[in-house]
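TetR family transcriptional regulator
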Amino acid sequence: MGKRNNILAAAEQLLAERGFYGLSMKVLADKAGIAAGTIYRYFDNKEMLMAELHQHITQEAAQTAFQGWSEQHSEKQKYDILWRNVFDAVRANPQRLAVMDMLYCMPHINQRNTDLLQDDAFLPFIEFFKKGIDEKRFHDWPIAALTALSFDSSINLAKKVLQERLEITEQLLTQVCDASWMIIQATPQHNLTTIND
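Predicted structure tokens:
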């Protein structure tokens, strides 16, 4: 890992642990194992560091979300891959959600730039929903609303598992994923795994 990425990784961890105002450049330098002055070779100030951290997280999140994605897959297969990847990502790195929420709330960062749906890295995700709407398979609703109904279920399910409030099974994962797919359909679909199967 290069120094720049090392700084970003350390910043993400400290932000999750201490929040924005508890993250000083000295503490960050100590965490990254570098001299404090080295940080300024890569980032002009703390605000620029936070903006770069957001971009870094977004790029990594997109790579994770689209792992295994292929245009050769059916629309349902694409959805399942994205949904499962999001679920696994939250379980593997729960602190990242907290960091992303903090970055979104920082007044010096343009909130439009902290919206994953506005980032080019997630363009295939947007096109996936637009195609579904255009083909009248998905409800003709704002993509943010469709996302809230579909992929937010993956995030929230992972949170419940992490909080040990839910014991997850492969069957339950499939059922919740299928249910979240069905709810965004303009026309109800059948033949998916049911709760009583």
